[in-house]
Amino acid sequence: METDTITAISTPTGEGAIAIVRLSGPEAISVASEVFKGKELKKVDSHTIHYGKIIEPETGEVAEEVMVSVMHAPKTFTREDVVEINCHGGMVAVNRVLEILLSKGARLAEPGEFTKRAFLNGRIDLSQAEAVMDLIRAKTDKAMSVALKQMDGRLSGLIQKYRQTLLETVAHVEVNIDYPEYDDVEEMSHEMMREKTKEVHAEIEELLQVAKQGKILREGLATAIIGRPNVGKSSLMNTLVQENKAIVTEVPGTTRDVIEEYVNVRGVPLRLVDTAGIRETEDIVEKIGVERSRQVLKESDLILFVLNNNEELTEEDKKLFEAVKGLEYIVIINKTDLERKLDLDEVNRLTEGNPLVTTSLLKEEGVDELETAIAKTFFSGEIDTGDLTYVSNVRHIQLLKQAKAALEEAMEGIELGMPMDIVQIDVTRTWEFLGEIIGDTASDSLIDQLFSQFCLGK
Ligand code: GDP
Ligand code: ZN
Questions:
Q1: What is the mean pLDDT of each successive set of 10 residues along the chain, which is 458 residues long?
Q2: Residues within 6 Å of ligand 1 by CB
Q3: Ligand 1 pocket test: which of 234, 235, 305 has the largest number of ligand atoms within 8 Å of its C-beta?
Q4: Where would you find this protein in the cell (predicted)?
Q5: Do the Cβ atoms of 233 and 306 come closer than 8 Å?
Q6: Which residues belong to the annotated binding site for K(+)?
Q7: Both 300 and 180 in a single domain?
Q8: At which of 338, 360, 385 does a domain end?
Q9: Domain annotation covers residue 125
Q10: Would 1 be classed as within a structural domain?
Q11: Which residues are annotated as a binding site for (6S)-5-formyl-5,6,7,8-tetrahydrofolate?
């Protein structure tokens, strides 16, 4: 059980007119009341908000005009006493308030510590806690709604349901083994076990299928634009950035910060990574050869392969077709405003059923069709997150895969007619993997590591 009182600025830094400094813990109210001039905070009702001033302890000067919310445990996010101080004087004043609170004995919260407490105090489960983190990082509205849903506990609900089914079968087997004399407990037959494991297996598979989409919504579609020099790659890049909301984020890397640009195309966040030279690559094949190009290109989720309508197909183009064979790509025949010199039949043949669109980026023609094709590649059309429960977290996907594998071993055992007490070992493992998703069977170190990824102040 945590016993100290933590504090942090819980709104994004540098943005917005209002910033909130949050306090949580047994001393939250007394720390706040020591530096607050206004109503006696120790005496106000829970869940009320009060106007007043934060005072510099040493000089008695007013540091900031504030609105203070007082919330008593347990009906708070952390289930501890919580005080939220709404400041409006910009980052300098907000930081000053934080310092004053720290000087009065509150400790600076570690990243994710508020959420961690909410989890440890049973307010939310692990998948919900992770959803809070996703929410902070959500790159598009759709990613946001996926995160919201997860926070809602939908994923948890499903996982719990599967675990319950598995637990019942395991318990059933246990009873059969421990109390063979109980005639009224039907013996768990291979047939029953087969049915239950099949049921859960099918559900996990379904979750994994939507997981891929969820992951993309969360992390963006790693996208590479390729083609010979002068076909229009830069123009395409510019068009996509101009037509859509571009989000630039800095990703702290090990050696240097990588700048990633996100472009929101119909709710699909394209991640145009400016690294390893795969974002916009002139003559990649010339430089590193077909095989190595393939290796590089394999790392992207989507390749936009641009050709020039005004020129005949060259050897270089053909090599590019070889390099993208079997990968997810869209062929873009650009410069349709100029005379057609490209052999369309040949291009069609090489494209092997992948989407092909024609554009004139100069005249801004065909861009809509291209965006539709991009959205279709992964979501078979416009997606509606409204009725999908997504699993979008890499850790969840990993655990679901492990659960599925363990369950498959159990199913194999059943088919081979293995004794029930052997089969149930794998069923129990499945149950444990699923439990890790919602934090039931997760180890402490895992929990610490997860919460440390949170933004400060959440
Ligand atoms: P990159 O080398 O593949 O990045 O090609 P750029 O985007 O730099 O374009 C090369 C040249 O082609 C520029 O002068 C563009 O203005 C021009 N260009 C791009 N798209 C079109 C188009 O659809 N029609 C015509 N006529 N010119 C285009
Ligand atoms: Zn270029």
A1: 79 61 95 95 92 91 90 91 85 82 89 80 79 65 63 77 86 70 65 91 85 67 84 84 56 39 74 50 64 77 92 92 90 97 96 94 94 77 44 76 95 91 90 86 60 56
A2: 227, 229-235, 334-335, 337-338, 360-362
A3: 235
A4: Cytoplasm
A5: yes
A6: 230, 249, 251, 254
A7: no
A8: 385
A9: no
A10: no
A11: 22, 84, 123, 458
CA-nearest residue, atom 18 of ligand 1: 232
Residues 326, 184, single domain; the answer is no
291 membership: H or E segment, kind and range: helix 284-298
Residues paired with residue 84 on neighbouring β-strands, in sequence order:
22, 69
> Count of domains in the chain?
3
Nearest CA to ligand 1 atom 11: 230
Domain assignment present for 39:
yes
The rounded distance, in Å, linking the Cα atoms of 94 and 23 is 13
Q: Which amino acid is at 9?
A: I
Q: 287 in a domain, yes or no?
A: yes
ipTM tops 0.85:
yes
361, 364, 369, best to mutate for ligand 1 pocket (most atoms within 8 Å of CB): 361
Give yes or no for a contact between 21 and 84, defined as CB atoms under 8 angstroms apart.
yes
Phi, psi of 402 (to 5 degrees): -65, -40
